[in-house]
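Researcher: Good morning. I'm working through a list of sequences from a screen, and I'd like to move beyond sequence-only analysis. For each chain I'm collecting a predicted structure so we can compare shapes side by side. This is the next one on the list. No need for commentary yet; just the structure.
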Amino acid sequence: MDLDKIIERKNTDCLKFDAVVRRGYPECILPLWVADMDFPAAPPILAALQKRIAHGVFGYSEPDPNRFFPVLERWFRERHNWQIQKDWLIQTPGVVFALAMAVKAFTNPGDAVLIQQPVYYPFSEVILDNGRRRVSSDLILKDGRYDIDFTDLERKIVENKVKLFLLCSPHNPVGRVWTRKELETVAAICHKNNVIVVADEIHEDFVWTERPHIPYASLGEAFAQQAVICTAPSKTFNLAGLQVSNIFIPDYGLRRRFHHEINAAGYSQLNTLGLIACEAAYQYGAPWLEEVKQYLCGNINFTKAFLQQHIPQIRLVEPEGTYLLWLDCRGLGLANTELEDLIIKKAGLWLDSGAIFGASGKGFQRINIACPRSVLQEALERMQKAIG
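Model: Good morning. Structure tokens for this chain:
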């Protein structure tokens, strides 16, 4: 694969590029915001899609579980040391959709739902837009690393009678891959206080440390029975537009309540081509993924070296996972509006403002480095020139 090759994505209804003007940005801006990759999908996935397209009929589709499930089972067992079961699986058109269904299934209007800001902003949207109350136990940044304040976490749960916790693991945007001890502490607190945990594990296949990602439901049977695990091939294999996610709910009662909300939303069969791509990805996509991960590691190291050499005022929060880097721009001494002006108007970049991830994200920017290195270099050089 030639991952240095720039593939023209404009005029393909691409959100990253074609929505620039519609969203109020100048046409010449360089976008590195939305969490997809600029790399083509794995050849086996494309071959499977082409074969299905050649058939020419695209009716309602459901995968044969006797063929489809073993592919998923092998992936999670071999990659994440987690043994899933067939009856746990519910498929949805996306993880954010699943988060919204969980909020509706396991809480009532006015109930408190816990998150850990700065965190992926749709977490707040699915809470507030469904009439629930958002409570945040903010992560603590110390010496360039984010940690959980477990005392504050439990206090917020007790004081607000929290029923549901949306856990981001690996964490977007701060890039933490939670340790087993951290996850077990969280799980013990939630189990003690009867809090259901919905773990968004969509970035699970991008881990840059020797320490692996640990699926929340693998911590123990008692914890798994109070958990909803959200996974998808969309980030791992760059298939976001095909709208398929695999949600695992070990407890029958929770699974039934979750499925009821999906039915109430009027959703049934998934995208036919998404199902084809999902199966091909998990069955044949591993070599492609390893090549992409190696390239992304190079992009991370390139970014780190560039900032240290040319823009030392901006510090990279060391990423343990994801291809979304969290830039600490507070060393520039700018107010949040001034920082936005610098990034957008002076540098001509469309990144994700840290402020949209919560108040604790002000002064930060999130940048997507899943692109050809020349594009990343241009973005960083634009930033360097704008800062002067």
